[in-house]
Amino acid sequence: MLDPALLRPGRFDRRIIVDMPDIRGREGILKVHTRKIPLADDVDLSVTARGTPGMSGADLANMVNEAALLAARHNRDKVTMAEVEEAKDRIFLGPEKKSKLIKEESRRMTAYHEAGHAVVGSKLKYSDTLHKVTIIPRGRAGGVTFFLPEDDRDEVSKEWCLDTITLSLGGRVAEQLVLNRMGNGARADIAGLSKLVRKMITQWGMSEKLGPISFGEREEQIFLGREIHQRQDYSEQTAQEIDEEVQRIVSECYDRAKQILEEDMDALHAVASALLDRETLNREEMDLLLEGKELPPLKRKAAGDEEKADTVADKEPDTETRPDFPGKPQPFPRPDTP
């Protein structure tokens, strides 16, 4: 952000980069902020730290405070993992839209869309680990499938990129296979995978056809309001080859996702049906469904025991946050999810 003339040798002896905390740092920050808050036995701060890459210390403190407020609204003596997950979802996507009216047809499409992501992602070797899938609308998202990285990712492999593109297409493929129609819920998925596949080809040299070459010179110096822009330093023929390579990779990943779902259609129907019934599935419930087992009965709330809707938090403005590739959790916001 500084004039390059200020950074000439001799003017500054050292430049220090203050980055966001890594996974261990986030876990330590969470322990500090939860030190005076009673936590239930099911709270696992290491899991929460994995699911919050890119968050600053202030973001984590805000999330802990939100979890404590939710526990108080639910008349609980301790903060449970459910409140921690709810607080994290609020930070990433916004509060639940409890008053939003959704047609059963749209709800069914969202369920199959998210089930497609979950089933495809669970069958891929190099993709991130499935954490949770929900069709509860939040902010601009009608549903979300969360995949958590095992660690803070500093580099990505070609295999991870291809698996991520494939699971991103799982929702669109499921819509077409089961419902024989396409909705606009895949727009965030398509935008994310398009950005990723172009990085693979033009920046990371992951195309066998075009080779290990970087296309497009980027000007990184930002001064006095100038934006980063990219200069095209390749021919029109090369640009056409780049477009053809993008289409080839996306088409192959689409066919791969389609094959996975066609071979395991029973799991797709089971997950979608469970989402329509429960709205949210965690990792353990997903494992049971993928193994062909039945879920334990869902405890229904008696009439009059329903919890009071949040009054202040539900009036927060709608927000949509989708961390960029790589090294971020991959929430896939749906009908407004890497």
Strand fraction: 5-15%
| Overall helicity | 40-55%
Instruction: State the assembly state of the protein chains.
Output: single chain
Mean pLDDT metric: 80
Shape: flat
The CATH topology of the largest domain is Methane Monooxygenase Hydroxylase, Chain G, domain 1
Biggest β-sheet: strands ordered side by side in the sheet = 2-1-5
Taken together, the total number of domains comes to 2
Q: Span between N and C termini?
A: 29 Å
Overall CATH architecture of the largest domain: Up-down Bundle
Number of helices: 10
Low-confidence parts:
302-338
The total strand number stands at 5
Order of helices and strands: HHHHHEEHHEEHHEH
CATH superfamily of the largest domain: Peptidase M41
Description:
It is built from 10 helices and 5 strands; from the N terminus they run αααααββααββααβα. It is mainly alpha-helical. The chain folds into 2 domains: 75 residues, Orthogonal Bundle (Helicase, Ruva Protein, domain 3); 195 residues, Up-down Bundle (Methane Monooxygenase Hydroxylase, Chain G, domain 1), CATH 1.20.58.760. The strands form 2 sheets. It has a 3-stranded antiparallel β-sheet with strand order 2-1-5. A two-stranded antiparallel ribbon has the order 3-4. Helix 3 crosses helix 4, helix 5 crosses helix 9 and helix 7 crosses helix 8.
